[in-house]
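Review this today:
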Amino acid sequence: MKFDEFFAQITGTSPYPYQRRLATDPDLPELLRVPTGAGKTVAVVGGWLWRRFFAGKAVRKATPRRLVYCLPMRVLVEQSAREAQKWVGRLKEHHPELGDIKVSVLMGGAEKDEWFHDPEQSRILFGTQDMLLSRALNRGYAASRFQWPIDFGLLNNDCLWVYDEPQLMGNGVATSAQLAGLRTSLGTAAPCASLWMSATMEPAWLDTVDYANRAKGESLELAPEDLAPGLPLHRRMTAAKTLHSLGAVATRDAREVAKLVVEQHVAGTKTLVVLNTVERAKEVFKAIKKLKNAPNDVMLVHSRFRQKERKQLNEKMIEPVEDRIIVATQVIEAGVDLSAQTLVTELAPWACLVQRIGRCNRTGLDDLGRVFWIDLDPDKQAAPYEADELRFAREQLIKLEGKDVSPKALDDFQKFESITLKYVPTHVLRRRDLIDLFDTTPDLSGNDVDVTPYLRSNERESDVQVYWRDLESGLPDSDARAPSRDELCRAPIGLFRSFLAKEKKGKKPSAFVWDHLDGKWLRIRDLDREVRPGMTILLPALAGGYSTELGWDVNETERVEPVLPPYDQVREEGVGDDFNSTRAQLTIAEHTDHVCDELESILKEVGHFFTEAATSHLRRAARWHDAGKAHAVFQGGLRKANPALDPNFYWAKSGRSGRLFFDRPRFRHELASALAVLKHNLPFEVAYLALAHHGKVRLSLRSLPDELPPENPETLFAQGVHCGDLLPEVDLGGGERCSETSLDLSLMQLGGEASWTARALTLRDALGPFQLAYLEALLRSADLRASKRERGGATP
């Protein structure tokens, strides 16, 4: 089958020449330089599908099984995913033999589709730079800390990362380049490639310390054949639109801007207004709504809505409706297939303006497009940008006054003016930073490494994720469900602190965070120290702070209607927690057999990435990972959950759902498993993988607060395991048994090459953090998958 036939099957149209080249050239380019509106999303998704399933054998083999599509802002990620799902669905209709190709969205909260359960499947992942890059740095925003190592392992192996409009990513550009360079220098188990695509990004932006010395890839750009008259792309690239000043010198008075916008709005068409800050957008929106001559349909779109309302706004925004004004922020700059006949934009950096202008008469099917710009005082109103960026952009806009600003005209203008955009990141991820981030051990002080400076350039863009619940007693339920994606709302960290500091009806709002170390809710008291970027914070519904029309709003005092999570939503989890949820009682041998079977299914597809020794260690770790469940403390917890369990067997699953309660707080069965592995003289790699399979204990062993110490104060103890504990003989399935074992915790002591930490660090450095994390992720995925099928009553 030819590529054009394939492309027609998934889209119903013929590909542009550049789309064909992207898919069929032997090697992928490093940079795709194509103007906005030229179909980059379908070019990448379609190109990946072609290379993954239909290209020559060598290309198919070299094409990663995961396409990671990274957008600079939380804008229409789900719309892009829906389009990709549509293309994939059509592909499977024509080629059912390809099996299941899934499309997932990473937007924070518990992931409903649990994409990480199937690391061997071909999959497309969409997300923002915050959500994706934080996961690639082992500090996933709005994700359970126990999920971090899985995401880190899977997103840094066997992936093609695509960065859409990176000129809007700030420090994220340098981080993306550094990750690409560090994957090469530190090594991965499976290839992990990167592609940046933008009309305004310069190749020199990728010359970071660890990516600069690689073999430079080619840049793919539009060729004359792409722009031949009569072709659809020619119409888009020459879609006429003229530029004029709106006449508003500043936006301090929202009423002036609202009045001018309504005057320029053409009845029966769509007008898009793009402002630089959420607060100004809200003020202009409210001012337009008050004008008698404004259309009835006025929308507000920004990044500070809950996912539930954002979905509704996104669907409404792309409706083919007439006579509408949309007031938005930068969220429409990337990935939005939106066309307006009239565009009004504030002065912004040149790269941002190019993106915004691309939303006017985007298809070339509207009448003559009109673009108006609002001037700002760079010395007083530059935020969130730099004053020099605005001054440079203003100079270009003045030159273009009254002229055509179609994509081709802008491209010609940039070449004629020799416009080269500068990029100087304020923070650059270095090798030692990434190595430090490999350790996910909870800090006893409650602090974690903040990766926000590596994601964005401006600290004012740092956010927390908040959600609202009805708290009848004023305190969260200790067994509360983790937040779902639809509940979460981004809030600027500075405004959020102000919100908590402001008294409402005589008292300040309460806010709570889940302490993974202690496994309980903590009330936030020290706003500066305890509110950090990327945190997920629970607010009482009565605290206010949100409206479905305006989104996050510190002045909103009315009760917020919660978005209830699904009843099967996972519970919040602490380091010392074990959940037992299955329809059947399963012995350790039975459950272990299920996990080993799932692992074999995974390794059948990805095992070739590893050495024979590595896969052997992974298989042995799967066989021994739950040996520690034979410990009397764990068996006691299971029997509390289900007293009817037969005492003649050692159980892995009680047949009852709920949190397990142990006589020794903080007990971790995987520590007992790892100690048993070492006592049986198996390789340290096996012990490490067995210990790390829940993501709770990895590089260090230590006792935790509130543990029950042994009677003998000289006895070492950690994670509920005491030195000298006897692990009884237990059947591990597959013809393997763990004989009675006295557990030795002497390796928890620091110092010397024999300590757990020293040996774990040596292993990390020998395999590299990416490959070791990938091994961890595969075992964890097999365990999760087996448990999920057991919960459903199916035999894995």
